[in-house]
């Protein structure tokens, strides 16, 4: 029996303490706090038990998320949808990869501007550094989720609190985004995003085993199941009717379309912010 699935069921029983459904949270704990604590519980157990997972030799389904840190649709997907994978027995069969670039655009001298301004460029780089410094999925996903959850609460300026929340050393991240390395990571993600076939049209852009999900990205679990189908080896979660019969969603991407024109004031703000950062006058956020 899949050991991760057994412990996942156990976690569901423990979930009554910090339920994932905000509507059932007691008045003593805020919905956002309860959701985050529950996620930490799931991801922490995943990170520990995945090391001893007996089926780790089986081929995995690639799940790639091309996104930008301040896009409302990207934030919603990470905070409210992608977390579902950690409450199933699917995570051992998935190779999840984050690509924090989105609709950013390269400028002369390898500088870049972002769709939602300089703060987005900065947080994209911070999250790129986190992925590089903490390559284990369980670790960098917790950090990315923490940052994006604060963005979702309109508290992006508090992103550094995630270090204390997750008991992480901030120095490696600070050194990364203050050096050329952070920029090099972003340029690499820019190249990966530009190489997409077909090209992405908006973010979040979710790709399962090389196939983009377009507007149906919120149903990513069903696509993982279809891609992994191995008869008796198929995870039990894939037998759930809801993963297979959900109707495709018609999502709107008014804020995060690739072709959306960048306002002049935002372009100027990005240029000034980049100049100030080079002069060591502090972080954009």
From TrEMBL:
Transmembrane segments: 28-49
Pfam families: GILT
MF GO annotations: oxidoreductase activity, acting on a sulfur group of donors, disulfide as acceptor
Keyword Cell wall biogenesis/degradation: no
Location relative to the cell: Secreted
Record-linked InterPro entries: Interferon-induced_GILT
Identification of the protein by name: Gamma-interferon-inducible lysosomal thiol reductase
Family membership noted in the UniProt record: Belongs to the GILT family.
GO CC aspect terms: extracellular region
Taxonomy of the source species: Eukaryota, Viridiplantae, Streptophyta, Embryophyta, Tracheophyta
Record's keyword terms, sorted: Glycoprotein, Membrane, Secreted, Signal, Transmembrane, Transmembrane helix
Superkingdom of source: Eukaryota
Keyword Transmembrane in record: yes
């Amino acid at each position: 029996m899949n050991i991760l699935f057994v412990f996942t069921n156990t976690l569901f029983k423990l979930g009554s303490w910090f339920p994932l459904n905000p509507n059932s949270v007691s008045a003593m704990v805020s919905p956002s706090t309860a959701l985050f604590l529950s996620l930490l519980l799931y991801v922490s157990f995943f990170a520990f038990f995945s090391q001893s997972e007996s089926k780790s030799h089986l081929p995995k389904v690639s799940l790639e998320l091309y996104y930008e840190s301040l896009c409302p649709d990207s934030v919603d997907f990470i905070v409210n949808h992608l977390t579902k994978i950690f409450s199933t027995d699917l995570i051992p069969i998935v190779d999840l990869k984050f690509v924090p670039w989105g609709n950013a655009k390269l400028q002369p001298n390898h500088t870049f501007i972002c769709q939602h301004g300089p703060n987005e460029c900065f947080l994209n780089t911070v999250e790129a550094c986190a992925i590089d410094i903490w390559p284990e999925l369980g670790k960098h996903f917790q950090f990315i989720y923490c940052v994006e959850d604060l963005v979702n609460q309109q508290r992006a300026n508090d992103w550094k609190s995630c270090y204390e929340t997750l008991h992480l050393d901030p120095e490696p991240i600070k050194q990364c985004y203050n050096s050329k390395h952070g920029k090099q990571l972003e340029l690499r993600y820019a190249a990966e995003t530009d190489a997409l076939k077909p090209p992405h049209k908006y973010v979040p852009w979710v790709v399962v085993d090389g196939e983009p999900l377009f507007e149906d990205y919120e149903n990513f679990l069903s696509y993982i199941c279809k891609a992994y189908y191995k008869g008796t080896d198929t995870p039990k979660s894939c037998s759930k009717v809801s993963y297979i019969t959900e109707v495709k969603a018609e999502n709107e991407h008014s804020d995060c379309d690739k072709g959306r024109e960048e306002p002049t004031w935002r372009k100027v703000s990005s240029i000034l912010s980049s100049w100030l950062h080079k002069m060591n006058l502090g972080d954009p956020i």
